[in-house]
Design a protein that fits this description.
- By secondary structure, the protein is of the alpha+beta class.
- It is built from four helices and ten strands; from the N terminus they run H-E-E-H-E-E-E-H-E-E-H-E-E-E.
- It has helices at residues 2-33, 64-84, 139-148, 174-199, and strands at 35-47, 50-61, 92-94, 98-109, 116-136, 163-164, 168-170, 204-212, 216-219, 238-251.
- The strands form two sheets. Strands 2, 3, 4, 5, 6 and 7 form a six-stranded antiparallel β-sheet that branches. Strands 1, 8, 9 and 10 form a four-stranded antiparallel β-sheet that branches.
- A hairpin with a 6-residue loop joins strand 4 and strand 5.
- The protein starts with a helix and ends with a strand.
């Protein structure tokens, strides 16, 4: 008799626990069903207000002192060239002179066995000098830098070949731009959620969660796909910034 009572108690407790677990599962399932998730987009076209352009030129000599003297002489020619184009000395800067030992390969054929032997022979020093231009929130200076970047071939007449790098365009106030896009994307997501719920004769409840996407900057009109880590185009002067925000709401 006592054994039956214990069994009944155990069975009763098991039924209660099972009902409790099923109840929680049912509640959790309904909670997942009684919500809506929407994605909002914030986008803006803008023009870069910062520019960076650089180039470099080299000279060679078997003697390092001669190479240094030659690169300093070329530096003066390059400086005078840009000053003649309307630039002030403080509107560009030269980097440190870098030296590199150069070698050439000499191959000889062994007459006895036909094997080819190769040897690296010192071929002098190469001195390299860089020059850079930058402007921030200065449209006139930016325009002059853009114009002169395509005229450096004129230096060939002075015996100097200046290797030009691509112009880099950036924006000075990305934090404010990003903040405004987050606000736009959040507002867009909220409006989308309200339209969906109103169309279905429902009521939008409290915000359940929010997640922000990756900040993307591409050239205007670009078909480049969004990158998982975010895009940051520095080659286009005219850019488009965008960001997404995912909002999840409870449904009343």
């Amino acid at each position: 008799m006592e054994s039956k009572i214990k069994s009944s108690i155990i069975i009763g407790i098991a039924i209660i626990v099972t009902a409790f677990i099923l109840g929680l599962s049912f509640k959790k399932r309904n909670e997942n069903l009684d919500s809506i998730s929407v994605i909002g987009l914030g986008t803006k076209d803008f023009v870069s207000d910062e520019i960076l352009w650089s180039g470099s030129f080299t000279t060679n000599s078997m003697d390092i002192k001669t190479a240094y003297s030659k690169i300093i002489s070329d530096q003066k020619i390059v400086s005078n060239f840009f000053i003649s184009k309307g630039f002030k000395p403080n509107e560009f800067s030269f980097g440190a002179v870098n030296f590199q030992k150069k070698f050439r390969e000499i191959r000889t054929v062994n007459a006895e066995n036909g094997y080819v032997n190769s040897e690296q022979v010192f071929n002098g020093y190469e001195a390299t000098q860089s020059i850079s231009f930058s402007a921030k929130k200065n449209p006139q200076l930016m325009k002059r830098i853009e114009e002169v970047s395509s005229k450096t071939s004129e230096l060939i007449n002075s015996g100097i070949e200046l290797t030009s790098n691509s112009i880099q365009y950036t924006y000075s106030d990305l934090p404010s731009l990003k903040q405004s896009l987050i606000e736009k994307a959040t507002k867009d997501a909220n409006e989308r959620a309200n339209k969906i719920v109103n169309t279905a004769d429902g009521d939008l409840g409290k915000l359940k969660g929010a997640n922000m996407g990756v900040f993307q900057i591409t050239g205007q009109g670009s078909t480049e796909e969004d990158s998982y880590g975010g895009n940051n185009d520095t080659f286009s002067k005219n850019k488009t910034a965008r960001i997404t925000v995912r909002l999840e709401y409870n449904l009343d």
